Amino acid sequence: MGKKRWEDLPPDVRRSVEKQLGEKIVRVLDCDGNADFSGIVHTEHNVVFVKAASQCAQSLTRPRAEEERRNRLLPSTAPRILWRNQNLDWVVTGYEYVPGRPVDLRPGSRDLRTLVRLLAELAVREVAGSSYFESMGARWSAESPWRTLATRKPHTLTDWDRQRIAEFTDMELHVFDVLSSGTSIAHGELSESSILIGDGGVPRIVGWTWALRAPAWVDAAVLAVRLVEAGHTPAEAESIVSGIPEWKNADAATLDAFSVALLGLRVADSPGSVLTCAARRYAQHRFIDKPAPTTGSRPS
Question: Is Transferase included in the keywords of this UniProt record (predicted)?
């Protein structure tokens, strides 16, 4: 969950939420999130999703300053901002509450077909207003995971990683350029918790705070790794996301490079996690017929 629980927030922050809602808060469910606090707030007649971020957390509050404008540019599946309060210490934002259960990404799930249909609809090559969003290429380039891992965290690499580290470093540079040219809007962090299945099996995607400007195939490529994490083979995962035309028609070499860059980010963040293992398994699948480069050589 977030860094703080509801009862950990300053009393004036909690009172400001109650004042905004116009009635007494009767229940709060603390939730996972990247803000200091994220939770579902219930009154007798209303339910909202609330995020609270300390103004001291500059890395969070800077992007939130533009969040209202960007929120209006997101697809209709995204929850809308209902209100926003700000003082010298805290920024508190109320969002439309989206009821539903987390999507089931496991093999045989009935959710997969409707999810793929939704992502195909969202994968629009050019989205009006995408220029207001930070480029995924710029964000990832600032992290340059493989270059960083090679120089600062070599102990986190597997033998397979080490054999290809020079190639991976070149590939991530290539994909940074491709990502920077994108004119769609990508969620970028699709997972079971960010895809909710509502009444009638209709999916909605939440958690768009860090949405980025990117090519239209990006979310499908991210989903492929999540499907492997959920128990699909890499080939099965690709068969599923091939129902999204923008991914199916994307350049194969670029998808290879994206899988490598995404693996680098996962290794840098949590080298031993289940998600990182899935990302490595998927990247290895993309390299099945490609021999490891000779030691000391770099791809041309």
Answer: yes
**CA within 13 Å, CB half, 70:** 20
Record the pTM.
0.90
- The dotted CATH code for 101-286 is 3.90.1200.10
Q: CB count, 10 Å around CB of 140? A: 23
Under DSSP, the state recorded for 181 is: T
Encode pLDDT of 176-187 as tens digits: 999 999 999 999
Token pair 């990502």: residue: 179
CB atoms within 10 A of CB 158: 11
CB 105 within 8 A of CB 190: no
Residue among 221, 72, 33, 74 nearest 140 (CA): 221
pLDDT of residue 299: 41
Domain map of the chain by residue range?
6-96, 101-286
CATH H-level superfamily of 6-96: Phosphorylase Kinase; domain 1 (3.30.200.20)
Angstrom distance (rounded) from CA 116 to CA 295: 41
| Structure tokens, 99 | 């009821």
